[in-house]
Amino acid sequence: MSPRTVLVTGGAGFIGMHVVPMLLEKGYHVRILDNMFRGDRDKVGELVATGKVELIDQDVRYGGAVHQAMKGCESVIHLAAVSINKSVADPFESVDINMVGNHNVFAAAADHGVRRLVFASSASVYGDPKKLPMHEDDELSPLTPYCIAKRSGEDLLGFYQRTKGLSWVALRFFNVYGPGQKTTAYYTSVINHFVNRLRNGLPPVIDGKGEQSMDFIHVHDIAASVVAALESEGDNVPVNIGTGIDTSIADLAKILINAVGVDVEPQFNPRDVLVSRRAADITRAKEVLGWEPTITVEDGMTDLIRNGG
Ligand SMILES: NC(=O)c1ccc[n+]([C@@H]2O[C@H](COP(=O)([O-])OP(=O)(O)OC[C@H]3O[C@@H](n4cnc5c(N)ncnc54)[C@H](O)[C@@H]3O)[C@@H](O)[C@H]2O)c1
Question: Fewer CB within 10 A of the terminal residue: the chain, N end or C end?
């Protein structure tokens, strides 16, 4: 029997480069569709050399190209997107890639009768949460074109499920970090900022009391959740993917001070800041995907800083 082929859009990016090797370990053949805007050509080249990965240098905005790439694929992982900050700077491009692109991928997947589609959604669909932990059934209040596209993507999947029987899982990733991440990544830029200061012997500077929090989830656990969603029995639901733990900026500073191993204390700038907090309710991930996080924030950050991952 020939190996099952998975189409991974955006597969050359940060998360994709962790998902693809996991798929290969499981015996899948992988077809990456990526316009290489942010893709890692060297890493993809190494994977293509194994003979188990193909690269289609194409754009999800082109429906015909997506349709062509879908031929012979038994399942799809849709990761291609432009980021939240770019979506605010250029809403037109964002809507093109993140909304039209989503639709091209979903429509082609439905037409080709794929077994399962896994969609990279985002915790940002919730907007500013009213309570923690955040549950999948909580009110959604997406604030930027990026977040609006993630939410509408989930709704479009429902449309293709009802009309064409498409089986899908939408993963609402929380704050992903880990090896291979670009230093410009929106949510995690605070990590780089603190680490750069600590490596120069300077204390991290925190505005306010550092109460703002995030749910940092290691990219290895993210990749495992994607593979679990590809193979789960349960489907047609959004699923939170986080650790369930909200790490405040003050806590993060302490974790990074320990990881870098310098003898400093964080400095607090007394001023009023908007405090937003995040933590995922991950009950559904356990129930539907059989997935649980395996890497604590302390271990993941320490490994990232000491060993580059
Ligand atoms: N990293 C996070 O913290 C996070 C959090 C929530 C959701 N997500 C979602 O996970 C997915 C992957 O994120 P990532 O962090 O790996 O991002 P990334 O930018 O590293 O990877 C995205 C990939 O998509 C490709 N791409 C962009 N536009 C394209 C287009 N028009 N056609 C084809 N390919 C295109 C890029 O070249 C890149 O390789 C995205 O959908 C993102 O919205 C990420």
Answer: N
